[in-house]
Amino acid sequence: MPRHVPVRASAGVTQELRRETVPDVHVWWRIADPAWTDPLVPSFAGKQGGRWNPPDSFPVLYLNEGMITARLNLRAFIAKWPYEPEDLRDDTGPILLGCVLPRRQVVCDAHSQVGVRALRLPDTYPFEADGTLVPRVRCQPIGVRVKAARLRGVHARSAQSRDPSDRELAWFPASVRSVARRVRTLAFAAWYRGSPRQNRSVQSARQLDR
């Protein structure tokens, strides 16, 4: 399976936003607490805010493009927990949900060099030239512009990785009737432990903490 999702990009930049259409059949991944009633409801991020939307703004569902990115994001997911990923129990650790989106989702490209430059972000995004992380307050107004342009989200390099092929999607549903459909549910032991590529994910996450 390729490291990244092939997309159809527009020929140019419209309103400083480079558009692309994500594949209809791609499975996106979301980390979730097993106790959550419905992990695919986007209203929580709409209230709390995230990298691509301010607090009390609009619904967003933050998704990982692949399992490698999901493993990298686990450390951020449990940041307020008194545990490290290696300390989590297999039967109580976060689950991973696979979902598919409605068809023909046109989003903003924030991962290619052309797309990043169009957004006036540094070529090194998600990091500044000095190695510090680009702050959320710089990305949130971009998300507002994307939403105003009626695009369905931001397809971006992961803020948890120094590898630009690790990507995420901040998905902006068109309406309350536009929903992500769950297609897989993986227990913690199935998606985090025992992967031949797990060591790279853990090592990369630790490097970001330095």
Short description:
This protein is α+β, with helices and mostly antiparallel strands and about 210 residues long.
Note down, in words, how this protein is organized.
- With 210 residues, this protein is an alpha+beta fold.
- The protein has one domain (8-209): Diphtheria Toxin, domain 1 (Alpha-Beta Complex).
- The chain has six helices and nine strands.
- It has helices spanning 43-48, 67-77, 113-118, 136-148, 188-191, 198-209; strands at 8-14, 17-21, 28-32, 61-64, 95-100, 106-110, 153-157, 167-171, 181-186.
- The strands form two sheets. A six-stranded mixed sheet has the order 1-2-6-7-8-4. A three-stranded antiparallel sheet has the order 3-5-9.
- Strand 1 and strand 2 (17-21) form a beta hairpin.
- Helix 2 (67-77) packs across helix 6.
What is the topology?
Layout: E1 8-14, E2 17-21, E3 28-32, H1 43-48, E4 61-64, H2 67-77, E5 95-100, E6 106-110, H3 113-118, H4 136-148, E7 153-157, E8 167-171, E9 181-186, H5 188-191, H6 198-209
Parallel strand pairs: 6-7
Antiparallel strand pairs: 1-2, 2-6, 3-5, 4-8, 5-9, 7-8
Rg is 16 Å
Model regions low in confidence, pLDDT < 50 over at least 5 residues = 10-14, 196-210
**What portion of residues belong to β-strands?**
15-25%
Query: Architecture in CATH?
Result: Alpha-Beta Complex
Largest sheet: 6 strands, mixed
Structural class: alpha+beta
| Global outline | globular
Q: Provide the residue-averaged pLDDT.
A: 84
Number of domains: 1
Q: What is the oligomer described by this structure?
A: single chain
Instruction: Estimate percent helicity.
Output: 10-25%
CATH fold-level assignment:
Diphtheria Toxin, domain 1
Number of distinct helices: 6
Q: What order do the helices and strands follow? A: EEEHEHEEHHEEEHH
Strand order of the largest sheet: 1-2-6-7-8-4
Name the CATH class. Alpha Beta
Roughly how many Å apart are the termini? 31 Å
How many strands appear in the DSSP assignment? 9
